[in-house]
Specification:
Blueprint: E1 2-4, E2 10-12, H1 17-26, E3 30-37, H2 42-50, E4 57-61, H3 66-73, H4 84-101, E5 111-120, E6 131-138, E7 147-155, H5 160-180, H6 185-191, E8 201-210, H7 218-227, E9 233-236, E10 242-243, H8 245-249, E11 253-258, H9 266-280, E12 290-297, H10 298-303, H11 312-324, E13 328-332, H12 337-344, E14 352-357, H13 358-364, H14 376-384, E15 390-394, E16 396-397, E17 404-405, H15 417-425, E18 429-431, H16 444-452, H17 466-473
Parallel strand pairs: 3-4, 3-5, 11-12, 11-14, 12-13, 14-15, 15-18
Antiparallel strand pairs: 1-2, 5-6, 6-7, 7-8, 9-10, 9-13, 16-17
Helix pairs in contact: 1-2, 1-5, 2-5, 5-6, 12-14
Length: 480
Amino acid sequence: MAITLKGDKEITVSPTIKQKALRINLNGNIYGSFSEIGAGQETVRNFFRAGGASGTIAKAMSAYDKVFSDAIYGIEDDKRYVTEQRLKKMLIHEIKLLEERLSRKEHSEKMFFSYANTVTTIDFAKKFKGHGWVGIKFQLDPHEDYSEIVLHVRFKENDVRLQQETLGKLGTNLIYGAYYLNNYPEKLLLSLYDNIDKDNIEIDMINFSGTRFIKVDNRLMSLYLVKYGMTDAVMFGPDGNNLLPAQVLYKKNILAFRGSFRPVTKVNIDIYKKSQALFCQEKKVNPEKTKVLFEITLSNLRSTHKAGDIDERDFLDRAELLCSLGQNVLITNFKEYYKLVEYLSEYTKARMALGMGIYNLIQIFDERYYRDLSGGILEAFGKLFYKDLKIYLYPLKNHSTGEITDSNNAEVHPRMKELYKFFKYNGRFIDIKNYDPSILDILSRTVYHMINNQESGWEKMLPDGIPELIKDKELFGYKG
């Protein structure tokens, strides 16, 4: 709703939770079920309180007991209840019951929906604040297939009652958004925090699918989660669908690469392959339990746009190439490497490593990046080199002199020399020896400008299959 102020200036005011629930209730064609496990029936309570719920709520239930829940939805292979798989089973089961129990002939105008959540709230010791899965399966026309929105949340409040209230608001926002904001996925995403403070709950994964969201790119939805401060990091897989980092990285060895990948070049792939080979040779690294991540920071995405905003087309072009190479992509709000390592450490105690060029390592030893830390660079390094973290270093070639720089002749600030030596001689820096010298002259920004300016010769600087993809989809400003 819009309110006009003095000077004809309009501001948008979000409807209250009661107003949203009432609007759904007063729509005689919206009809569905609520199934909530783990935090009471907090979402459906908002619809009961708003009034007029008899025409909206087909059924409200909380299969709270695990045995009873298993009898309804089946037993999961991993015996867990707060999972995406469990949520989807709930959504499918309840929609099936609606279809079976209500005749379409008698209810030809009804638009069915199934809302569900399965969560675990804060524990008694208040060490684990809890998390959960929330979703809706719905239709906007009685004769169309169902669309679906599924998201994962992490609770931040320290009181179970407050967590329940927040979950109820989120669920109401989701149902309202599904029916009234489905044509505007970005607005729908933002509306999930209507009447909720971002300090109360974190949304770290969301996927849109089905008839109404065919044109929605879930990678872009992932980006919005970080851009709008809903979470600090998101992940998507080679298929473009968003992944839950906690699920993918749990107890895994992790090898991460940070870059612009604008576009991904032969150098990027050489760093990746050579680092991966070294990492998998480590005694405590199981190759079968290793995850590789290509990370792009929000600051990197912003730095390529004149206005300091994010060029969404540019982001999707990069994502398209990395996905085509079968990689998992991590989008983060971490400028400093130690924050990335700190984040990954939440999910695993196994070995971790970073692959990077020598220039990036020199930047890590720049004290200016750590002025906001009371312990300065020492505090940052304590977090960065957690659990014997190693850095695999790709050499740098001076394009004027031809000199090669590696960890042996890298120059850091005089005050940092002893600290640098400490980590180097303790085996934290591993030089990549078997690099390809023929590709050291390749720079991502040079390739990008060549593509953008319709110059020739850039194809040979990129991995196999990438030039064809750029041309076919006209990425990075390419014009055939």
